[in-house]
Amino acid sequence: MLGLEVRGLSKRFGGLTVAEDIDFDLRPGDRKALIGPNGAGKSTFSNLVTGIIAPSSGTIRFDGSDIRSCNEAQRVKLGIAKTFQITNLFRELTVRENLRLPILERKGKGYRFFKRANSDTRIEAEVSALLEQFALAALADTKVADLAYGQQRLIELALTLALKPRVLILDEPAAGVPSSETHLIIDALERLPADLAVLIIEHDMDLVFRLASQIVVLVQGRILTEGTPAEIAANERVRELYLGGSHD
Asked: Domain for residue 2, yes or no?
């Protein structure tokens, strides 16, 4: 099967089980959201899929191949990438310089000591395309440190897309973004390539219901239910556990 296939995935830390018997599929073009209350295990699940931590049991397959032995960097090269809740940018570099770095790394040109970093016209064309895609062209030569937080989140998303992933995991893409800037994130996510498989882990339910075609609800490390936004909104158990209470 093309895409990501998880079966029976579990993770235990001593006597504590944080993920239990999770089955999950993410195929090209999917727009799925993973929601759940505090401590549900959402970040743990994403860390298992991306290779940040190893599962206690279960399988993770990508395009039919078992990838459990692959570390995080190897999974990125296969096409599985993740953004994080906190931005991790080079604040003293410009937007353009930040975007150039993952492209150089992807093409194996990150350590060219005797060539100018901007000497490759194909790489510069790719940088320019990303700047346009994320409405950052006017800020291209501005230091990241001088930008609003919502704009920095856009840059992080553009950086991740520069790796050319086939599976994109967004860990709270709107975290810390003022409500007046949330539309920047939503607009950028709506412009993602149609064939990209996207998993959104998010507490902003307006964003989730606007972007996701399927929603998976995780509670205490187990999948409670999965369905369309309308089905999830109408599910009384979900409303009791999550939508009507606190969320992470």
From this structure: yes
